[in-house]
Amino acid sequence: MSDTYTITPEIEAFIEECKGKEFSKSYLIAVLHKIQAKYGFLPNNLMEEVAIRMEIPTSKVYGVATFYHMFTLVPEGKHIVNICLGTACYVKGAEQVLNSLKNSLKIDLNQTTEDGLFTLKATRCIGTCGLAPVVMVDEKVYSNVTPDDVPVIIAKYKNK
Amino acid sequence: MGKDIINNYLKIKETSHQRLKDAGYFDRIKIQVGSATCENASGAQDVYTEFEKMVKASGRSDILLHMTGCTGHCSSEPIVGVFIPGDIPVKYGHVTPQKAFEIFTSHVQGNGGPVVDMILDKKTDRLYNHEFVFCGQGTKCGDKSDKVAQAFKEKIKQLGMEETIKVASGVCFGVCNDMNNTSATACYVFPERVFYGNITEADLDEIIEQHIKNNTIVKRLVVKLDRVNNHFFEHYGDVEYFNHQLRLTLKNCGVIDPESIEEYIHFGGFEALANSLQNDSPQAIIDKIRISGLRGRGGGGYPTATKWANTRNAKGDRKFIICNADEGDPGAFMDRSMLEGDPFSVIEGMIIGGYSISSERGFIYIRAEYPLAIERLENAIKLARENGFLGENILGSGYSFDIELRLGAGAFVCGEETALIHSIEGMRGMPRPRPPYPSQKGLWGYPTMINNVETLANVPVILLNGPEWFASVGTEGSKGTKVFALAGKINQTGLVEVPMGTTLRDIIFKNGGGIKDGKKFKAVQTGGPSGGCLPESYLDTIVDYDSLNKAGSIMGSGGMIVLSEDDCMVDIAKFFLEFTQNESCGKCTPCREGTKRMLEILEKITAGLGTMEDLDKLERLGSVIRKASLCGLGQTAPNPVLSTLRHFRDEYETHVKDKKCPAGRCKKLLKYEIIAEKCVGCTACARRCPVQCISGSPKQVHVIDQSRCIKCGMCFEACKFDAVKFN
């Protein structure tokens, strides 16, 4: 299984570019971002690979990967459904929207649907408080979402 | 020193001007569409595409479709501006592709004039021959301008000219110091776009005779000012929401195309930098910042000049400057808006800051959650390099400086400066004890200056308009303006920039248009998870660092969440503590364990299991966490709880003693019941109930099984006969 996840030439080039720069080890987070952008999560074998290539102890790479909320160590669904639970969304009823999402997708937070289509996540404010409550599917932001809107939004991605 | 920095700048400005001219920027009709994360989420891109099609189809070459950042008027997005040379600028709100068609055919194409009922804020119900906008109440002048405006209004009324002449009040224009006459008032007039200064009641008749009746400008009263807000109305039109603001750091947001360095330069961009490099020593710049009285806008309110001087005087072979754009407070979005709408101002502020501490390298640490802001910053840095404002030998001054973007990965604690430094270094973003402060020992051990986005955006404004002028805006201890992000139960959500010293009441009710759905104001939460909640009795508190501290809250980065009677203060306190507890990095015990214990107590209270001792325990625990935590996150984490305990203790007591949540937010304390007399047996509630705990046959009274009810409230929403009630 593990060879399905490899350092692509693009990621390799990026690592090499970083290594040529001053304070090269400081680019670890940027490298992990690249890998996650490619595979949707951080595969174990690639974290080890990064550790060797960047000459950073594996424990430190793992430490960074687990510290930041945006990194995930398990594969995620094709679409990431992010519900904002920031203050503005919360006071505007994000909780009800979250319940509706859980009902529609039949999963809990941080779980992935059986068909691998959706992962449900919560985020802390995406800075569009004027439109609260908001739900973000991949990069698209849905504003003023009500519990009833949820099935409609989800359906859009099911048929794709 | 014989350096030709200013000349080099002027050359760049000239070519830049030429490029704008060639693009028809100055003489074509402009249709301006907002483009930012929030604008796009409201559908601005579709509107843009629609206009694109229509412009193409019309075959007209005199129309320029113009993209701009976000104006901060979130609740009315997407916003479209139509600027016809010689006409009053008009802004439309809530524009849809269909409405775009109407705007285009009537206002742009036809001679029908603006589509009146779609105008932003719908303040204008007709178009006037002249509009007089008087300056609003400043912090020093009392209500004299209101009096003059009122007198003028009376006169217009007496003359029966109300149909054709509009009299409005705006914000403090900050021009009194220029006029050297603080007993008079100022007024801006459309469509002539003249600024009258020094007006007293005695001048009003002359204005009516000359300006209105004879259509000639009263030259004697005209003041020429070259201040940021001088062009204000030309860009924003006469919109109530903007009239009550003094936009210094947001001056370009919603005005320029954030991807065009030419437009930034056109509005005075990089002039402050060129002047500084030509005429000022690094120390002279720091002195100017000191005179301006600028304090850090990220929350702490530390005097910016002191920070700069400390870094400048620290020993080190090299120095760094960091722009902290890790805007993590839920409910704050001014930095995002600024970086999406006007990334150049922040870059210019950073170069000047870098020069003043003799740094050659700067970093912008930005949240990965802001993809559009990152894209625009990257573009702006590239353009600044191409035009000689970044890189080697900036403008021929011999000074070299460059900026690199570094992305966060979702950790709130990284807004704390030492944690942020660790994150840039590629490590876990955990804070360390201070001192040594970053200004002594920061990034990779070198002296490092860390400034917030808004702080840096203020720098060009100060240097361009003079530090003394900047210091004339605001209060004794807090100078200039502050941008606030209004959200929650408020009519006009969005960004407002107001002079320091404005009251909370004015911000919420004047700028924000009051509470949504006519509900009653309950509290305002300022400063995000580190701040506190203030009740109605504190509405007349003025916003500056010291007053808010005294009231038990903080300025913070400027988030302002307005809460209504529907919100439960215990629930809100719990919400914030859940946040900080979750975001605690775990390094120090008081924060890691303390916030967890506090949260447990709050959960107990909201579940109806709290005791009165728990309230004292919360206070005691809170004060320990405050004193003993390592970094700002822990030291401020108890604030939401302590401030609500101070101002809303009775609500806590109701939860504890009566086991009730007055606002109906704490689910475990709720009990849903069906009123038998009102139930018609329509089965709507039973069908919606996710746990099937409602029983009853059609046309018979339904009953909720309390033991299985999860209190989701679906039945309450589903019932059309008001037969479901909750206590």
TrEMBL record, chain A:
A Pfam match: 2Fe-2S_thioredx
Broadest EC class assigned to this enzyme: oxidoreductase
UniProt-listed Gene3D superfamilies: Glutaredoxin, NADH-quinone oxidoreductase subunit E
Domain of life of the organism encoding this protein: Bacteria
A Gene Ontology molecular function term of the record: oxidoreductase activity
Cofactor(s), names only, from the UniProt record: [2Fe-2S] cluster
Co-factor note (free text): Binds 1 [2Fe-2S] cluster.
The enzyme's E.C. designation: 1.6.5.11
Keywords assigned: 2Fe-2S, Iron, Iron-sulfur, Metal-binding, Oxidoreductase
Binding site for [2Fe-2S] cluster: 84, 89, 125, 129
Family (UniProt): Belongs to the complex I 24 kDa subunit family.
Entry protein name: NADH-quinone oxidoreductase subunit NuoE
Source organism of this protein record: Candidatus Auribacter fodinae
